[in-house]
Amino acid sequence: MEEEQGAARQVPAPRAGSTLLDRRASLFEGPVGRLRDLSPAYFGLVMATGIVSLGADMMGLPLLAQALFVLNLLQYGALCVLYVLRAIYHPRQFFGDMVSHLRGPGYFTAVAATGILSSQFLVQAGNVAVGFSLWLLAVVLWIGLIYTIFTAFTVKADKPTLDKGISGGWLLSVVATQSVAVSSALLAVHIGQPYRLELNLLALSMWLWGGMLYIWMMSLIFYRYVFFRFLPDDLSPPYWINMGAMAISTLAGSLLILNAPQAPFLVSLLPFLKGFTVFYWATGSWWIPMLLLLGVWRYGVQRFPFRYDPLYWGAVFPLGMYAASTWQMNRAMEFGFLGGLPHVFLYAALLAWMLTFAGMVRSVLRAGRRPPGTV
Fold first, then answer.
1. Which of 126-155 are b and which e, b meaning 16 or more Cβ less than 10 Å from the residue's Cβ?
2. Measured on CA atoms in the order 278, 254, 53, 317, is the torsion positive or negative?
């Protein structure tokens, strides 16, 4: 009995706060811990869903458009919460990704997603107040991210070589810029003077800047294509943004053409607007066969495994955007003969969206069943 009492006295008492520490450790190994590796480009989910919803609304599919609109609201809210939690619990990864040459441009999906959701509220819900608030948020995010990211890329001491540091994901900065142009042009339609002219000027300026940014970046990306070794792993889904950036530029140009009667200075620029809008559309159209051939080479010839990746939303979005932009350009330019093409690409985008969404749900369910602390 005395030996048992002595042994009991030698057992250390539980440390105060040890339960709290254990809970904190468990939290960081569980769902919050998994936020450490959340892709900066996950707002591509909202971009893809939003443009398919807008395309469906344009082409007379209101039930599908409204269902995707509601879903997009939920997705946007959930991602905002997840990104805030990641910034709080994993600030080193959150801000470290922002200055990474490969991962940093993914943050521009937050700008584009906000701009597209603003457009949805303006077009599908007719809610100018919420649309304006989201447009303002998109502008603030654009200013903050574009100068933070590119300043960091410029001044950082250690930089990757061109073949290791650039990808099609860099063109998300163009998409973000043009999303502000699109939402500004749409907001100008729904708002009166004295701000209608200013919004159209902002839309025009962002449209022009986005085009210049595309020329700079596409020159580097194309140079990387043809003068450096290209492996299947290098052909990530965001390379479809090569086309998507031109598609959203076409959409912005088409809206500016339609807005010309409201802004006299746009009337004088109509030949320029129409010429460059067709130029953007033709460039985006050229990329489609090229990207399909590269996809066949990646998955068919090189046998690259086909599994879910958040970056695949960057391939769904361009398909939906090409459908929407072609529909608007056909309307703005009064071509008429392009009427069937937007429907083909809308259904292709919808199919791609469903397959990617199913892959995402399966990935989330598998991650939920995975024991905490495992990869």
1. eeeeebbebbebbbebbeebbeebeeebee
2. positive
Q: Which residues of 212-241 are buried (b: 16+ CB within 10 A; e: fewer)?
A: ebbeebbeebeebbeeeeeeeebbbbbbbb
Burial class (CB in 10 A: 0-12, 13-18, 19+), 58: middle
Q: Is 25 within 8 Å of 95 (Cβ atoms)? A: no
- Alpha carbons 339 and 183: distance in angstroms, whole number: 24
Domains and CATH numbers, the chain: 35-369 (1.50.10.150)
How far is residue 200's CA from residue 187's CA, in Å, rounded to a whole number? 9
Q: Are the C-beta atoms of residues 12 and 82 closer than 8 Å to each other?
A: no
Q: Which residue has the tokens 């009337």?
A: 267
Question: Tens digit of pLDDT for each residue in 26-74?
Answer: 444 566 777 888 889 999 999 999 999 999 999 999 999 999 999 999 9
Question: CB of 79 within 8 A of CB of 106?
Answer: no
Structural contact between residues 310 and 75, judged by C-beta atoms closer than 8 angstroms? no
Q: What is the pTM (predicted TM-score) of this model?
A: 0.88
Dist CA 322 CA 316 (whole Å): 10
Amino acid at residue number 100: S
Six-digit token string for 218: 């596409």
**What is the tens place of the pLDDT at every residue in 126-167?**
999 999 999 999 999 999 999 999 999 999 989 998 888 888
What is the distance between the alpha carbons of residues 27 and 39, in angstroms, rounded to a whole number?
20
CA distance 356 to 354: 5
Terminal CA-CA length for the chain: 48
Q: Is the pLDDT of residue 373 over 70?
A: no
Q: What is the DSSP string of 193-239?
A: TTSHHHHHHHHHHHHHHHHHHHHHHHHHHHHHHHHS---GGG--GGG
Closest CA to 108 of 253, 210, 258, 228: 210
Residue predicted with more confidence, 298 or 211: 211
Q: Which residue has the tokens 């919803």?
A: 53
